[in-house]
Amino acid sequence: MYRDGALHAEDVPLADIATAVGTPFYAYSAATFARHFQVLDEALSWGPHLICYAMKANSNQAILKMLGDMGAGMDVVSGGEYARARAAGVPGERIVFSGVGKTRDEIEMTLKGGIRQFNVESEPEMVVLSEIATKLGLIAPITIRVNPDVDAKTHEKIATGKKENKFGIPISRAREVYAMAAGLPGLKIVGIDVHIGSQLTDLTPYREAFELVAELTKTLREDGHEISRLDLGGGLGIPYARDNDAPPVPAEYGQIVRETVGDLGCEIEIEPGRLVAGNAGVLVSEVIYVKSGEDREFLILDAAMNDLIRPAMYSAHHDIVPLKEAEVGVEMQPYDIVGPVCESGDTFAKQRPLPPLEATDLVAFRSAGAYGAVMASEYNTRPMVPEVLVMGDQFAVIRPRPTLEEIINRDIVPEWL
Ligand code: LLP
After folding, report:
1. Which residues pair with 144 in a beta bridge?
2. Mean pLDDT across the stretch 4-12?
3. Which atom of ligand 1 is nearest to the CA of 274?
4. Is there a catalytic annotation at residue 52?
5. Looking at the domain 2-27+279-408, which fold is it?
6. What are 24-44's pLDDT values in tens digits?
7. Catalytic residue, candidates 328, 342, 413, 417
8. Which ligand 1 atom sits closest to the C-alpha of 77?
9. N or C: which end of the chain has fewer CB within 10 A?
């Protein structure tokens, strides 16, 4: 928000952080993270529930610690995420493990370390999990992820609930697969899991999917299975374009959960990532040059696709605003906003209206708290973008920018070269 004409994160002017850490950098608001978590917690307050934050959205340990301290569980998709969550102090009994390709090493590590449940995605995985659990003398609590074949009406790269997607088992085969799980010695069935996609802006697909899950719960119980937990996945969308998007309201989502599965006596788990993190973060960047093309002006920033890949990868829109608020009545001008990486795909926005800007001006990409820093790379040997957490009037670097020396020294040139 702007205060006295300067964009702030909580009580800190973002320009002050830029002076302290250099650009580009991500900045997160602790209060916004907390508020998003609480809104969801309230939406499900009508019954027993656990919010397992999908830490793939933003897995900095400072963020995990903050959410963990508020009582959040974690949804992890790798041994690395599990280790990170544990390092941030989240107990194993609050961690669920999702993903289509859990390796033997990851299964062994998480079983030994302690885990709330595995969200199993296939029969071969089930067999391996049972085998490893038996070997360790442990029992693996599982849900099975069902694919309900509903259209989440989102970007094709992040839709997961259609039959052509690689995720889960077809809901039509659920009885058969649950029967098989019940016959495996190392497993204990605890519930059902479903996740239909990300950045859902319409709640109808949720209703459709959850109704199917409710029906399945009854059927599986009749078959003699214990279904005491329903993991309903994540996916709630956020407004990326402040002025146009009307995202779903968490309270309405909670209501749909209640209406569809609320009377089954199950503990509800959800795995939100973007809704918690997305609008709690910005990416701040400096204008390097303003370049006049034949028919357009290019704003060349010091942030690039390696720092925020969403526009290049999903044609995603991020609002981009100057750190210095535009004067009232100033005429907007269209810019193509690009980074320095040597690919045309390194384009953040085309013909985006902004107040006139010049070199050294600072801009912020909004809604960059989720799937921003975590998807960053060092492509073009651009140092990994740093992260800063703001709380009230204080801020701290929660991941520093590596020095060029650190980057260079990571490579090993074999002595026989
Ligand atoms: N649970 C499972 C099993 C998931 O696969 C995901 C996201 C989530 C929960 C969290 O979904 P969310 O609440 O954040 O929508 N990189 C993409 C998004 C990929 C989402 C992958 N799975 C992007 O930048 O839009």
Report:
1. 120, 192
2. 97
3. 14
4. no
5. Lyase, Ornithine Decarboxylase; Chain A, domain 1 (2.40.37)
6. 999 999 999 999 999 999 999
7. 342
8. 3
9. C
